[in-house]
Amino acid sequence: MFADYHVHTSFSSDSDTPCEQMIEKAIRLGMDRICITDHYDMDYETGEFQLDTPAYEQKILELQELYADRIEVLYGVEMGLKPDLEENRRFSGYLESHPFDYCIGSVHVIDGKDPYYRDEFAMSDAEMFRRYFEITLENIRALSGFQTLGHLDYAVRYGIRKAEEYSYRRYSDLIDMILIELINRGIALEVNTAGYRAGLGAPNPHPDVIRRYHNLGGERIVLGSDAHAPEYLGYGMDMARDLLLSLGIRYVTVYKKKKPEMIRL
Ligand SMILES: [Zn+2]
Ligand SMILES: [Zn+2]
How far is ligand 2, taken at its centre, from the CA of residue 68, in Å? Predict the structure, then answer.
């Protein structure tokens, strides 16, 4: 089994890669399925990360047919989470009204600001990380309809001192509450291998967080590279696989029509 469940293409405002190029690359890498998960961040402050859903949907459904005998193409989306998006069922209503196979819910914004723009935060790394976990917990409790929480410690990628002010232990009060909430709600934990190329030397979240999730009884782990260009498709998957096995984790989860399926590593 080899699948990538976090992939961006030119339907995301931060990628120029045509869908076909990603799929062709996946076939060359020997993947048996690929889930395209372009960005949609409702109400993102700068106006980026909006999604032309009708055009996107048409394209993915076309490519599913076109490549059916070579690779399974799944229709996914990465939704930005914000606690107020469920007013009038806007968030869950959107997800229900499209035939998605899979949705990643990701926290890209803390109180209106993206940690990617680190200068906009007048706080220490430790304060920013703590606030990020608080907002993540609030989002999980406020929103539903997504299958997986994306890159749980995303904010750490943008620390001024990188991960120096981060460890599972330092934020275990909040991280444990997040993990328990995920398990209780049947939401999977993403292991996002972009952390390897972001210079963290580990995926997001940190291996200690993955271990804790497993020890708390969490069973759903989804692997994704978060590639925005073909050269990063599947990047770090072999390292992530070895890591999971070393933690005693034997299965990963894939989704089709939002139904989970456990696949042996
Ligand atoms: Zn993301
Ligand atoms: Zn992404």
Answer: 24
How many Å lie between the centroid of ligand 2 and the Cα of residue 6? 6
> What is the extent of the structural domain holding 45?
3-264
- Return the CATH number at 176: 3.20.20.140
Total number of domains in the chain? 1
- How does pLDDT run across 160-176, given as a tens digit for each residue? 998 999 999 999 999 99
Residues bordering ligand 1, an ion, CB closer than 5 Å:
106
Dump pLDDT digits (tens) for 69-79. Answer: 999 999 999 99
Distance (Å, whole) CA 251 – CA 209:
17
The ligand that comes nearest to the alpha carbon of residue 15 is 2
pTM above 0.85, yes or no: yes
Distance (Å, whole) CA 222 – CA 220 = 7
Instruction: Please spell the DSSP secondary structure of 42-109, one letter per residue.
Output: TT-TTS-S---HHHHHHHHHHHHHHTTTT-EEEEEEEEEP-GGGGGGGHHHHHHHTS--SEEEEE---
User: What is the whole-number distance in angstroms between the Cα of residue 48 and the centre of ligand 1?
Assistant: 13
Q: Residue 41 C-alpha to ligand 1 middle, in angstroms?
A: 10
